[in-house]
Amino acid sequence: AALKNRNRGRHLITSAFEHHAVINSCCFLQELKYKITILPVERNGHVSTESLQKALTPETTLVSIMLANNEIGTIQSISNLTQIVHENNTLFHSDAVQAVGHIPVDVNNLKVDLLSASAHKFNGPKGIGFLYLRKGTEILSWSSGGKQENNIRAGTENVASIIGMAVALKKNVDNINEKMVYLRKLSDILLRRLTDAGVDFLLNGDSDRLPGNLNISIRNQDGEALLHRLDLCGILVSTGAACNSGTSDASHVIKALGTPREYANGTIRISLSKDNTVEDVLAISEAIITIVTTPYPKRKINP
Question: Which terminus of the chain, N or C, has fewer Cβ atoms within 10 Å?
Answer without folding.
Answer: C
